[in-house]
Structures
1.
Amino acid sequence: MIDLRSDTVTRPTPAMREAMFAAEVGDDVYGDDLTVNKLQERVAALFGKEAALFTPTGSLSNQLAIRSLVAPGEELLTETQSHIVRAELGAGAVFSGITTRTWPAKNGLLQAADPLAIASPDAGPYLVSTKAIAVENTHNFGGGTVQPISEIALLRDESSKLGLSMHLDGARIWNAHVASGVSFKEYGSHFDTVSVCFSKGLGAPVGSMMLGTHEVVENARRWRKRYGAGMRQIGILAAAVDYALDHNIERLAQDHQRARTIAEALSRISDAFIDPSSVQTNIVAIDVSHTSTSAGQLVSTLKDHGILAGAMGSKLLRFVTHMDFTDKELEQVLEILPKALGKL
Ligand SMILES: *Cc1c(COP(=O)(O)O)cnc(C)c1O
């Protein structure tokens, strides 16, 4: 099977496992794990932030971040298809009493004017007050789109005049950086809190991080424990991440190239499936709304042909390229697609 469901399906390489094997470890609940301590400093510095906290998932790092910015009964604004509102099972409402309002954006792409138009800071005693805005980069359900840095900077300027904070869901910020050339520090400079994932394109088996000020991170450390995610000898995981940061960032360009090649092949079958120029990173979103098939049916047809894809809606599915997807498999995919999709 050629597994293109997600970039989370990668397995640690022998070299990464060796780094894990050799890791110096300690009990992180006591702050004793030197490997994770060093990694937290490394990633905080990379994004120009004061401090960072390792978490088992990106959902948890998002949740720790937004709860530091938005009090119960207050409001977070985010895009309609963002991970925070669609894929974290209501965690912000369940655990933090956070209410959300959303704005829709084509391909998830940020235009600063959209959130600014619905923001209502200091809304008085009758209406919910907006406290923060979350931006996802790259945008997952938007098809791996890269947010324009000019819109991010504009939103930062205008929202800070309103006293609002900003959170970056940077699960795939690595892909955004490689595609745009914008530095991690510049991305970090526009946000109060940042969440990043190491278990996607970077190929680590587990791990995410939440970044912010010393005070916010210290407090998040308490909340992480309260959520039941205080961990012990996590240097083993941190060593894998350290290895991934050294070796697996620049190679993402290859994933992006392969995704573009798949998109071009799809558009040759029918240009209604996808506009290849919309594929900026490693996610290929396929629209089947012009056919009588559903995304679920097509996922099962593709599976019969040896390709695993992910359904994202009734008429939308996706391929995600990643480091375990080879050029040989790419060739096979290019052969299979006309057979599986040609008659739809
Ligand atoms: C994967 C992902 C996350 C975090 O997911 P976990 O499975 O909780 O690690 C957060 N945001 C986006 C945009 C993602 O794609």
Note: The chain has two domains: 10-247, 251-341.
2.
Amino acid sequence: MATRRDTGLAALAGLAAGVVTLGVGSLVALITGPSTDPLVAVGSAFVDATPAWLKDFAASTFGTADKVVLGIGEVLVILALAALAGVLAARRWAWGATLVVVLGAVAALAAMGRPDAGTLAGAPAVVGAIAGLLTLRELVRRLPGAPGRPRPEGVQRRAFLQATAAAGALGVVGVVLGRAIGAGARGAQSARAAVRIPSPTTTAAPVPAGVDVGVDGVGPWQTPPDEFYRIDTALVVPQVDPSTWSLRVHGMVEEEVTLTWDELLEGDLVEAWVTLACVSNPVGGDLIGNQKWLGMPIADLLARARPTGDADMVLSRSVDGFTASTPLAALTDGRDALLAIAMDGEPLPVEHGFPVRMVVPGLYGYVSATKWVTELRVTRFADDTAYWTERGWSAEGPIKTQSRIEVPRPGTSVPAGSVVVAGTAWAQHRGITGVQVRVDQGSWNDATLADDGSIDSWRQWSWTWDAEPGEYQLFVRASDPQGPQTGAVAGVIPDGATGYDTVRVTVT
Ligand SMILES: Nc1nc2c(c(=O)[nH]1)N[C@H]1C(S)=C(S)[C@@H](COP(=O)(O)O)O[C@H]1N2
Ligand SMILES: [Mo]
């Protein structure tokens, strides 16, 4: 009967073999591409298989750190399974070996199932698993008390631990080297540095100085690019070389069109201020940002392709397989729906879609803002579904009129007297017509709107409250031309959260 200590050593052997597997896998992925790294491939498959409630939980709990949390969770699960493989292998080699083979096969299939998978996508997982198997066999043979090990137990133990530590260290070096070299070799960053963004054919209307409400604690009207929220399913940021990029427009069209990067740069480019928002943004949340985009009107491209008869949707597709279903009408009704190449006058940041992404005013990102876009297929809602629709979200996602209080912060104390309450409201492509603030169950008070930057952008507001000491709850609501936003509370699934943002404050 194996003792508890033997089990511990066997688990260590499994861990070391697991790390070797990952290290070799990530080194082989230097040849086959970052999305074939077993850790990345399994994580991506997991992301794709994630049901709507779990995505919602991850986004609302971890925000844009959800990828880091996923990565840590994945590594912990893999290491636990590797330890189990070690324990099994020590009892009976075939059991442990079977577990390693199954794990390797799962990782290989995950990599081969990625939308951008090449023929060798499974190689890192397969080669890694073979290296792991060989390591595990060597280490299990060296377990103290294993058959054919005549030396005194203490000596055996030391030899085993040395071999295990060496294997584990080599594995870690492999993982670190693979990742570091891979990150250095990512081509898009240098391609981006070489891009010259042409001047707009149509410039955006000048932004009034008063778009910023001028209250400390209310974020800038223009979101700095490096603070812009990032939401996507990509565990490694797709690296797209503009010189080989092209966009194919096909499906229900009279003429198929292929657009190259050079043609895009030479076309008429429109500049527009648009506030992008994520459907997973909870009430009061910050998965939203406002920027100046530059791009070719998608309507111009569709006019060349000439959509046929009863087409009512454009299914855009990214290099990494993400898809979005955008109503054809939203792309052709004259709003600034763009194939964007620049944010704030600079080439798109790689994680925000370099070289080309879509930006459509008034629609949540998941149905409109495809990054790294390479394909537009004109089709019908009745015939096709997009990435998130297949996971429980609505096929159409117009942005809901919303508002949030940014000052005062929740749970803070403010001195009695004049208290400035301020924040942001948005109703992209409809426009904010008013914002009101309510104290507890009192009546609604009109806030002052800051200057309007564009009908597709958010709008800041402030209200001065004559506050007496006590505990209060503040509520905000915004109005668009159709009337005030709803106070009915709804979660983000299936088509965006509703309800009033509220803040509790103590007046002293
Ligand atoms: N290729 C790709 N594009 C994508 C997504 C994605 O997962 N993959 N996510 C969409 C979602 S849900 C949102 S809210 C916006 C976010 O854009 P940002 O990361 O530039 O803020 O991108 C959209 N475009
Ligand atoms: Mo989103």
Note: The radius of gyration is 28 Å.
